């Protein structure tokens, strides 16, 4: 596994450690590996929404499995980020029902408003636009995910306001 | 007004909380079931004729009866809440607005199966719903419906929510189990089926959210009463999630047997087409099921009324029918580009293929690539037959049904809308520089292609 040049401070706080142990307790004592996906979500949330190789190694150590068992999971599932990403990741659903309601035009609009291409963070690292597959909100299209939440029936005015709210730090990303 | 059994309490203020849910009669099925034997509960579900609401439609009671009780190993119930099929968003609605219904169903069903450790596997994207369920489980536990010696019955059950992390394939039951074990979501070869060797090689039943949520009503009112709702082997009610070019998109609970015409056009349901444009096509059961053209939507090939049932929607096989599937009802008006839509679905399946089987891993990529070039005006005449050939080599040749799910939409689109593919190939200048999903009305497309042939 190639080490990236991105640096990440690893900080497993007592609160995080306690949450990890709680998640592991949901499975039989000899099946701690089962907690891997939920644990990775918690660890990622606590580390600027991405997982460096070093952090993945740390998770392997905590759970008591081989590092490769973490790598193969992180690289398989789309919700784990292997590089630093924009603080506010606008994940637009780009599957058919959202497309029928104009999500492609809305993504173009958002990119041009932010001055970026899909998949590239803004220079200040604050925003990133990504196209993702079906988010299961087809009746409320077009929509996107931001952190833990869904934003539905989007239009250009809502996007404009959202960008302002993000810049003003009025947006909560995680439901704690 | 049709009967509601899942969403009948959805408008009660505060129904999300334990207190209100209990006051409205919640958890009565657990009380009743605990006084019955587990086999009696299974028998009620068998009698109800309830079929798995995740898409496959396999009878739930029969699936339960397959669970291996002789091995002496712990048994598990796993709820499949990994809803990720394009067009489908009903389970999220149920879990978000009435979470205790699912928890009640999990307890009653776990008791019937003799499971003492059960899980709800929810897709990672539904993170706020995950938190809602966690809170509801804590409430249920505090009230004595979970944990040791439930309501003094001697029955113990631990129930947890487990979140995925963005992989459609984990909706396939064996991939879901792999994922629950902390691995990549690669489907397993069957047999052995999960009822014999599932989670941690223990006997396991995997049921969809909607299926499990129907169990409390069945136990409270009897399987025979449930079987009276619906038509024939399509018993009970079904949640339909509707989207696309319709006036009232959203989640609806219908009695199986409702006509497609009434569902599409009555104000109680979809209210007809939005923007008053004519209907071109619909997908009745999520992206994986075949698309049907307008002339086969309200009537079957035999001229009978098309009904919202497993049988009627599949009438005539894929030549003239489709599937009820997961109930993801997507409607397209006459300006919707079927080629672009098919490409969109193929991109989805290519992205979501786990890569384990070559026909699926390679084939879905081919489909996406060939469809992309047809859609963007660089297709060749022979590409349409090539697409047909590729999809036919994927179908039936993979470990899990994702390969079939990728192949069917392509086959149906070519079968019913071949002229539109030909139009893309022969008139590339007409499709370049147009709005993404918009094409000329289908009748005009057909006219242009037939004129070209002359």
Automatic annotation (TrEMBL), chain A:
Per its UniProt record, the required cofactor names are: [2Fe-2S] cluster
Q: Matching CDD domains, A to Z?
A: TRX_Fd_NuoE
Gene Ontology terms, MF aspect: 2 iron, 2 sulfur cluster binding; metal ion binding; NADH dehydrogenase activity
Keyword Ribonucleoprotein attributed: no
Q: How is the cofactor bound?
A: Binds 1 [2Fe-2S] cluster.
**One Pfam family in the UniProt entry:** 2Fe-2S_thioredx
Keyword Glycoprotein carried by entry: no
Q: State the UniProt keywords alphabetically.
A: 2Fe-2S, Iron, Iron-sulfur, Metal-binding
Residues reported to bind [2Fe-2S] cluster: 93, 98, 134, 138
Q: Which NCBIfam families match?
A: nuoE_fam
Question: Which family, according to UniProt?
Answer: Belongs to the complex I 24 kDa subunit family.
Write the protein's name: NAD(P)H-dependent oxidoreductase subunit E
Record organism: Flavobacterium magnum
TrEMBL record, chain B:
Q: What's its top-level EC category?
A: translocase
Q: Which GO biological process categories is it annotated with?
A: cellular respiration
NCBIfam families per the UniProt record, alphabetical: nuoF_fam (TIGR01959), PRK13596.1 (NF010120)
Known function: NDH-1 shuttles electrons from NADH, via FMN and iron-sulfur (Fe-S) centers, to quinones in the respiratory chain.
Q: Which cofactor does it need?
A: [4Fe-4S] cluster; FMN
Q: Which residues form the NADH-ubiquinone oxidoreductase 51kDa subunit iron-sulphur binding domain?
A: 339-384
Can you provide one Gene Ontology molecular function annotated for this UniProt record? Answer: 4 iron, 4 sulfur cluster binding
According to the UniProt entry, what is the EC number of this protein? Answer: 7.1.1.-
Report the protein name in the record.
NADH-quinone oxidoreductase subunit F
Q: Name one Pfam family in it.
A: Complex1_51K
Q: Which family does it belong to?
A: Belongs to the complex I 51 kDa subunit family.
Record's keyword terms, sorted: 4Fe-4S, Flavoprotein, FMN, Iron, Iron-sulfur, Metal-binding, NAD, Oxidoreductase, Quinone, Translocase
Q: Which domain of life is it from?
A: Bacteria
Reactions catalysed: a quinone + NADH + 5 H(+)(in) = a quinol + NAD(+) + 4 H(+)(out)
């Amino acid at each position: 596994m190639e080490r990236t040049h991105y640096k990440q401070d690893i900080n497993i706080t007592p609160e995080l450690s306690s949450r990890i142990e709680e998640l592991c307790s949901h499975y039989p004592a000899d099946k701690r590996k089962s907690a891997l996906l939920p644990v990775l979500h918690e660890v990622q949330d606590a580390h600027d929404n991405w997982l460096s190789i070093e952090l993945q190694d740390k998770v392997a150590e905590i759970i008591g499995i081989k590092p490769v068992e973490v790598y193969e999971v992180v690289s398989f599932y789309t919700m784990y980020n292997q590089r630093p990403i924009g603080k506010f990741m606008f994940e637009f659903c780009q599957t058919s029902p959202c497309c029928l309601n104009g999500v492609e035009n809305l993504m173009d609009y958002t990119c041009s408003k932010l001055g970026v291409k899909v998949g590239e963070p803004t220079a200040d690292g604050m925003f990133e636009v990504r196209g993702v597959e079906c988010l299961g909100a087809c009746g409320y299209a077009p929509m996107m995910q931001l952190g833990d939440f869904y934003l539905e029936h989007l239009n250009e005015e809502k996007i404009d306001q959202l960008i302002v709210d993000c810049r003003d730090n009025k947006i909560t990303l995680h439901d704690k | 007004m049709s009967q509601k059994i899942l969403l009948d309490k959805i408008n009660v203020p505060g129904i999300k909380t334990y207190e209100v849910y209990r006051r409205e009669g919640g958890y009565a099925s657990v009380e009743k079931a605990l006084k019955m034997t587990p086999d009696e509960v299974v028998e009620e579900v068998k009698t109800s004729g309830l079929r798995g609401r995740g898409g496959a439609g396999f009878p739930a009671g029969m699936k339960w009866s397959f669970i291996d009780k002789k091995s002496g190993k712990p048994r598990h119930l796993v709820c499949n809440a990994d809803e990720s099929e394009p067009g489908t968003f009903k389970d999220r609605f149920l879990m978000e607005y009435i979470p205790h219904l699912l928890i009640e169903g999990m307890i009653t069903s776990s008791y019937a199966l003799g499971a003492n450790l059960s899980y709800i596997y929810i897709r990672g994207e539904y993170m706020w719903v995950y938190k809602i369920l966690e809170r509801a489980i804590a409430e249920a536990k505090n009230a004595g419906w979970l944990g040791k010696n439930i309501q003094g019955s001697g029955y113990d059950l631990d129930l947890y929510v487990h979140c995925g992390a963005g992989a459609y394939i984990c909706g396939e039951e064996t991939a879901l189990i792999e994922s629950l074990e902390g691995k990549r979501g690669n489907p397993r070869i069957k047999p052995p089926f999960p009822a014999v060797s599932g989670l941690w090689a223990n006997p396991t039943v995997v049921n969809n959210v909607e299926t499990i949520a129907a169990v409390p009503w069945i136990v409270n009112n009897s399987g025979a009463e449930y079987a009276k709702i619906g038509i024939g082997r399509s018993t009970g009610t079904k949640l339909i999630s509707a989207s696309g070019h319709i006036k009232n998109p959203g989640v609806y609970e219908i009695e199986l047997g409702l006509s497609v015409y009434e569902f599409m056009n009555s104000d109680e349901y979809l209210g007809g087409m939005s923007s008053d444009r004519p209907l071109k096509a619909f997908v009745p059961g999520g992206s994986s099921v075949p698309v049907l053209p307008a002339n086969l939507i309200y009537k079957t090939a035999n001229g009978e009324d098309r009904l919202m049932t497993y049988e009627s929607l599949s009438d005539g096989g894929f030549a003239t029918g489709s599937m009820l599937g997961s109930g993801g009802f997507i409607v397209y008006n006459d300006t919707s580009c079927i080629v672009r839509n098919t490409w969109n679905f193929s991109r989805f399946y290519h992205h979501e293929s786990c890569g384990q089987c070559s026909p699926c891993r390679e084939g879905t990529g081919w489909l996406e690539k060939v469809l992309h070039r047809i859609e963007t005006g660089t297709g060749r005449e022979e590409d349409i037959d090539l697409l047909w050939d590729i999809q036919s080599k994927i179908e039936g040749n993979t470990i899990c049904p994702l390969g079939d799910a990728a192949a069917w939409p392509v086959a149906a689109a070519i079968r019913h809308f071949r002229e539109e593919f030909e139009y893309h190939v022969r008139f590339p200048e007409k499709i370049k520089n147009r709005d993404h999903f918009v094409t000329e009305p289908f009748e005009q497309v057909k006219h242009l292609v037939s004129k070209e042939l002359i």
